[in-house]
Amino acid sequence: MIAAPAAAAATEPATTQDNAIEGMVRAAEQPQRLEGASVVLEGGGTRREAVTGADGRFTFASVSPGEYSLTASVLGRQTTTVDVTVVAGQTARVDVRLDPEPVTLDELIVTGTVMPTAVREVPTPVTIVSRADIERLAPRNVAELVRTAVPGAVYNDEGPGARYGVFSVRGVSGLGAASTLKVYVDGAEIADPAYVTNLDPGIIERVEVVSGPQASTIYGSRAISGVMQIFTRRGSGGDWRRPRLSGTMELEVVQSPYVSGTPRAPEYRLNLAGGDSRFGYNLGYSGRQEPEWVDLLSQEDQRLFGSVNFTVGRLEAQASMRAHDGSNYSSWNPILREVYQRVGAPDNPPTRQRFISRLETNSLDLGFEAASWWHHDFTMGFDRYEDSYYPVLPNEDGTYSVRARDTNRSSMAYNTTLSRELTEDLNGTFVFGADRSEYTLTAHDPIDVRDWRDYDWPTADFTREIRSDGYFGQMQLGFRDAVFFTGGIRGDRHPQGSTDGLTWSPRFGITGIRQAGEFTIKPRFAWGQAVIVPNEDQVGGDESEFSILLANPDLRSQKQRGYDLGVDVLYGGKGSIGLTFFDQDPVDLIQLVITGSDTSGNRPRNIFQYQNLHRMNNQGWELKVEAQPTSRLSLNLNYGLTNSTVVELDESYTGDYEEGQELDERPKWTMSMGASLTPRDGTTLNADLTYLSGWNSADFAGFLGDIYSGNFNPVAKPYPLGYHIDYPAFMRLNMSVSQDLPGGASAFVHIFNLTDDDNFERINTAAPRPRTWTFGVRF
Questions:
Q1: How is 710-745 classified by DSSP, letter by letter?
Q2: Of the CATH numbers 2.170.130.10, 3.40.50.150, 3.40.190.80, 1.10.10.10, which one belongs to the domain with range 108-232?
Q3: Is 214 helix (H, G, I), strand (E, B) or coil?
Q4: CATH H-level superfamily of 2-98
Q5: Boundaries of every domain in the chain
Q6: pLDDT in tens, 256-298
Q7: pLDDT in tens, 581-616
């Protein structure tokens, strides 16, 4: 119920002219006002109609006090009806958000476009994950969500207690962390994408993923594999003084073969939100414990989240923050225990270590509409991840040996957008922007302190600082709302000691819409280039008591350039098929190569150097299918196939890769499929399956076994090349059922890994999570 505040006492009776309804119609997935939406007001024996203007607003003046229903609709979006109460002498304010149709090209995105743009106008394939998708999939973290929803995405669980996870798309675009997507949360660039797995999926409203290098024209360095934007939940609608309380309470139960009994632990989440057409807020808190499904495992998380958004005239502002405190105690790895037993080593519990992590992300976004065709946007963000390790038991002198790391990134971006009707048939949108990103990583080796919670950091044993400044321009042209062209170029300035002070990232693409009866056909083509510049250490070298890093003044920036070609076919709002072929060349990939050893000192040291491999090729196919044959059944399928091959080696390269070698270090193909069935009103059944093909990697358990038994011979059998084995494919089948309850609540049961597949996900010392049951209530 959306109600106006109670009227204050008046000396004279209020007239009908004093009462009104004002409101705004927006897109549910983006803060975009919808022009031309039809709004119908019914109640009290009357029916009135209005159409929203360019700002998405509508007004019904002179409305008699009473109860009304207000219905908003626009092409490509689901019709929404809300209840409104008009009180004498008051203006009721209404904020209506329209969801896109289940299968449509009218859904709005901002990734790769800056301004909200319909999918029909975008030449690159885009994966959109809604709040409803997240509730259906019930992912344990963001990376697991990406693996399920994005064709060709790869993510591997790092085992019990892990707080990070590397995920990638479209093959090998970097020999290391560069293969990951560049990640933003509410416009703030994440310091290290591997740690976005700590983000609570419960606060996410929407995720957009663009695969490939094209989006780097806007997002710059390190968007070499693609970009993922995460948008958190906002408050809106109704009366801001009447907040809505929602939340979940869950109990997680693990059927573990590694411990006796049935480990279980709770998770809970509370959310307070409110707002009207001009102001909204959202506050949340969640707490979680991990069941002790391997011996000694202890993990707790506490998360706090908040956001506020408001509109004052032509100014829109949004701010958000999240804070996360995590605590782990080292577990007794069941895989390593088997290794110890196999080689006859003592099977003693490990020395217990405590791991403390703290994360925070803050963002501020300001938008100003200078005119109906001219928009300015400014975003600031800060993301930090810090952790520390220390033994649970103090040293003999009462001190703790602590080591710590602090990773942070600050970012800011400004852009201005002009949208004009150039001719009767041609529309244009022009975006110009500049941004800056500053990354800092500091760490210190173990030091002895009295209080691990409060001590002065010593001079950092390791420091890395990277700053980049970027400038870009992009245009989007639409001809008769049927043919759309996108083109742009970006320059990045890198002040660090690299060989490339200025790099360029161009892009262009074209797409079109053709109607053939009930079929809508969208062919598309896009090409782009992304660049990652080597940092000062990679070029200049370094030396420590453990290793020597040789300088390489000729080290070149690594690039990825290439195209994707595809077609999307929609059938009457009931289904769609998207097929994409991509051909992309990672050029001058940077690899850390062992060049020798130094035995002149007290201890031997390996000698390393960063080198350019030169050229590889990633080729493959992506398939995305969505269908809603009936209003009670929806189906989806994602498939990705990638072939990564070494095409040419640099003359100076001395590493282990060979020309013509096909890289099999990641699954060659991935598949996910899902089904959602509503057999009766209020009851929903979901099933989702994810399958990743086999890959080749090091036998880490075998390597440790040779070390513990004294049989390791680095000359006869070097690590890792001498230990490579084939890992089998793995499958994760998840199922859930939910039932609506009185009062707007619902109960659910979710089963993770229903078949209890125990194949490894990355290396054979990371125990895969067994079948897990989650029982919960949403309210």
A1: T---TTTS-TTGGGEEEEPPEEEEEEEEEEE-GGG-
A2: 2.170.130.10
A3: helix
A4: Immunoglobulins (2.60.40.10)
A5: 2-98, 108-232, 244-778
A6: 999 999 999 999 999 998 887 778 899 999 999 999 999 999 9
A7: 999 999 998 888 888 888 887 777 888 899 999 999
